[in-house]
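Deviation from plan, reported transparently: nicotinamide-adenine-dinucleotide complex.
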Amino acid sequence: MGKFNDKVVVVTGSGRGIGRAIALAFAREGADVVVNVSRNVEQMNQVVKEIENLGARAIGVVADVSSISGAEKLIKGAIEHFGKVDILVNNAGIARPAMCYKMTEEEWNKVVSVNLTGTFNCIRAVAPHMIERKTGKIINVSSIAGRDGMIGNINYAASKAGVFGITKTAAKELARYGINVNCVAPGFIETQMTEWLKEPKFREKYLPRIPLGRLGKPEEVASLVLFLASDEANYITGQIIAIDGGMTMV
Ligand code: NAD
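Because the crystal trials were delayed, the predicted structure below was used instead.
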């Protein structure tokens, strides 16, 4: 028996990286998984196949969460196929680095629309369904950049700080319906988003700032997300939990 047998989970941006690790971890615990990408169908189908190979059920939904219609398509697709959504993980996120005095309007808007508005859109889309069922778990993937700030990433840090506000407000609004809303704030995790950290000059600069002395693994973030989605976390809501090896962002 898996810990999430009979649970349906939607993981946004789960074609690769942390989202993929979260999707696979839920599948290993018996959940039905809705894999989502904005464009890359090949990646989506690959993750669906990996989940099926684990003996769990999965579907893929192509939907851009930065629009309300995309988020609604995703949640509707999940409910139509599996009959319900128990857990929503808002993981989709992007970065478009530039110093604040050089950042374009497009770079600002794009990052805010995916990371911040996308998180709101998916909560907006799933909340009526969870309210009706009087149960649900929502986990938002933010970043310690939202807590500390991050040089060259004002759009990203602002959007991730906004996710803290979404988490705390949605937790207060939805608690009366038995819905928990929490947030994980990773530090540097080994994914394509942090490819640039493979360059020796960046490794030398950033590694000494991580007390645990290494980058985190997507699977480690997945473990925290699964804990927050489990019954063991039923009395936790509105919290932001860092998973960062003890580092402070610069
Ligand atoms: P990644 O780039 O490997 O994966 C991000 C995923 O989101 C991709 O599959 C992408 O296709 C998807 N996505 C992007 N825009 C989307 C949209 N509009 N609709 C649906 N899906 C969309 O990055 P990752 O490192 O796996 O990051 C996952 C999350 O973790 C992000 O929210 C990121 O900000 C956050 N995070 C990552 C790190 C890190 O060090 N890697 C640190 C802190 C927070």
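The mean pLDDT is 97. We consider this an acceptable substitute for the interim report.
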